[in-house]
């Protein structure tokens, strides 16, 4: 079942000369993990806002094309239905917080869904365990570290149990340790949840490891949409789109340039094995 289907999506912000999204078409099966990468101003956030239905609802501009969520066009869904289907986490968690404690922050969205007190407590329990924030429940969100804040922001969205979650650069405002923390939460979510996950991320190396598919946007257009293990096959095209190819992947590519197996490795273990094979080949040839 397709969780997302985007058909010829075009968007121009009012007052802007150029199109922010140009003829975007792709689809994503349910429970898959999609990484969206691209240089600055590529249209990544704009695409996320459109998927979440915030464009055109909260922005003025010209929209063409169609987005379907589990076979239903986004335009036919009410704000409440959209919130139940798709959750969104932004780069700046502070922008999301309204309550005086982490517990209230998470419960707030659940109360808006009209859930019973028992259900709210069950979900609070489940999500605090999953995201490792149990000891933070009584604290004010503004008192937390950047990484803790982002975990709470993700927990608040997960607690609503959306079918699809979109995270827009969830690690961009974090220190390296907190970034690792959030990436490990993303890995847990992928492993443990039946959920379709879309993550916009600048760290292509980290996101490639987690993604089933990767979509590369540049200047509002799709430059590449590929299974993660095939994404780096076209290193030159990726670099030409303004993406820095990770050194380890470039090195692996150069070492394997005349290899009989052209498939590019993405996962660290595969890269290690590939380099081992190439070194052995070099020694014996
Ligand atoms: N509210 C807005 N009004 C007008 N133009 C906008 C608005 N938001 C974004 N844009 C323009 O749309 C284009 C795409 O921007 P967008 O923020 O979607 O890119 P991005 O890939 O998310 O960039 P970044 O990685 O820098 O966050 C850019 O040219 C940007 O200037």
From TrEMBL:
Keyword entries, A-Z: ATP-binding, Cell membrane, Membrane, Nucleotide-binding, Translocase, Transport
Subcellular location: Cell membrane
Record CDD domains: ABC_cobalt_CbiO_domain1
GO MF, one annotated term: ATP hydrolysis activity
This protein's GO CC annotations: ATP-binding cassette (ABC) transporter complex
SMART domains per the UniProt record, alphabetical: AAA
Annotated coiled-coil segments of the chain: none
Family to which this protein belongs: Belongs to the ABC transporter superfamily.
Name recorded for this polypeptide: Energy-coupling factor transport system ATP-binding protein
């Amino acid at each position: 079942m397709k969780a997302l289907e985007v058909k010829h999506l075009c968007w121009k912000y009012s007052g802007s000369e150029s199109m922010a999204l140009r003829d975007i078409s792709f689809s994503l099966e349910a429970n898959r993990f999609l990484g969206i990468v691209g240089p600055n101003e590529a249209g990544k956030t704009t695409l996320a806002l459109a998927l979440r239905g915030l464009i055109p609802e909260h922005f003025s501009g010209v929209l063409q094309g169609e987005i379907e969520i589990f076979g239903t066009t986004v335009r036919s869904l009410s704000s409440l239905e959209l919130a139940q289907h798709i959750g969104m986490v932004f780069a700046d968690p502070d922008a999301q917080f309204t309550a005086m404690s982490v517990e209230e922050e998470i419960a707030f969205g659940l109360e808006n869904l009209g859930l019973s007190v028992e259900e709210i407590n069950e979900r609070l329990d489940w999500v605090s365990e999953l995201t490792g924030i149990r000891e933070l429940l009584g604290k004010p969100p503004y008192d937390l570290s950047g990484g803790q804040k982002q975990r709470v922001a993700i927990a608040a969205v997960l607690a609503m149990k959306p079918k699809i979650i979109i995270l827009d650069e969830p690690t961009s405002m974090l220190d390296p340790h907190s970034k690792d923390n959030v990436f490990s939460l993303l890995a847990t979510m992928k492993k443990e949840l039946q959920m379709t996950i879309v993550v916009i991320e600048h760290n292509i190396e980290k996101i490639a490891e987690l993604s089933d598919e990767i979509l590369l946007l540049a200047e509002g257009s799709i430059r590449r949409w590929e299974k993660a293990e095939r994404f780096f096959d076209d290193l030159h095209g990726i670099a030409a789109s303004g993406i820095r190819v990770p050194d380890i992947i470039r090195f692996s590519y150069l070492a394997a340039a005349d290899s009989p197996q052209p498939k590019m490795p993405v996962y660290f273990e595969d890269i290690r094995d590939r380099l081992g094979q190439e070194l052995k080949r070099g020694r014996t040839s």
